[in-house]
From TrEMBL:
<protein>
    <submittedName>
        <fullName>(2Fe-2S)-binding protein</fullName>
    </submittedName>
</protein>
<keyword id="KW-0411">Iron-sulfur</keyword>
<dbReference type="Pfam" id="PF00111">
    <property type="entry name" value="Fer2"/>
</dbReference>
<dbReference type="InterPro" id="IPR012675">
    <property type="entry name" value="Beta-grasp_dom_sf"/>
</dbReference>
<feature type="domain" description="2Fe-2S ferredoxin-type">
    <location>
        <begin position="1"/>
        <end position="77"/>
    </location>
</feature>
<dbReference type="InterPro" id="IPR051452">
    <property type="entry name" value="Diverse_Oxidoreductases"/>
</dbReference>
<dbReference type="InterPro" id="IPR036884">
    <property type="entry name" value="2Fe-2S-bd_dom_sf"/>
</dbReference>
<dbReference type="InterPro" id="IPR036010">
    <property type="entry name" value="2Fe-2S_ferredoxin-like_sf"/>
</dbReference>
<dbReference type="Pfam" id="PF01799">
    <property type="entry name" value="Fer2_2"/>
</dbReference>
<dbReference type="InterPro" id="IPR001041">
    <property type="entry name" value="2Fe-2S_ferredoxin-type"/>
</dbReference>
<keyword id="KW-0001">2Fe-2S</keyword>
<keyword id="KW-0560">Oxidoreductase</keyword>
<dbReference type="InterPro" id="IPR002888">
    <property type="entry name" value="2Fe-2S-bd"/>
</dbReference>
<keyword id="KW-0479">Metal-binding</keyword>
<keyword id="KW-0408">Iron</keyword>
């Protein structure tokens, strides 16, 4: 099947089998390896990307379902000049990452969270990030990073 969508502001056209998952299309066909495959069961959130403005787990979506959509991956979050997105900078500044495996999905979920619920409390942030697992940080610094990133996003 031929699938056409926009990824990080660039047109993509792929000839792929109909059962190709979006995460496979991104990683294997477009070589955007920042989107991680962690569990293959949509439990961990490492594969989270933004499709048409909403965070989704790309292991639960067929690439053909992205036909005509706007897809943003962690590689497309930073500015064209390479400067970090406020959420990426906040994760770095607040030590909201350790091994880094969950970080791309966590950052993409956090960006969507802040766009959808800009006034979320600490408890709501924890609840809204429930589908993203981190095995290293204990989440304290992640919550702090989301709050700091939210401040930076509102300033832009």
């Amino acid at each position: 099947m031929n699938v056409q969508f926009t990824v990080n502001g660039r047109a993509a056209s792929l000839d792929i089998p109909p059962n190709t998952l979006l995460v496979q299309a991104l990683r294997e066909h477009l070589h955007l390896t920042g989107t991680h495959v962690g569990c293959d069961t949509s439990q961990c959130g490492a594969c989270t990307v933004i499709v048409d403005g909403r965070a989704i787990k790309s292991c639960t979506m067929l690439a053909v379902q992205a036909q005509g959509c706007e897809v943003q991956t962690i590689e497309g979050l930073a500015a064209a000049d390479g400067s970090l997105h406020p959420m990426q900078a906040a994760f770095k500044q607040c030590h909201g990452l350790q091994c880094g495996f969950c970080t791309p999905g966590m950052v993409m979920s956090a960006v969507d969270l802040c766009r959808q619920q800009p006034q979320a409390s600490d408890a709501e942030i924890r609840e809204l990030l429930e589908g993203n697992f981190c095995r290293c940080t204990g989440y304290q610094n992640i919550v702090a990073a989301v709050k700091k990133g939210r401040e930076g996003m509102s300033a832009v």
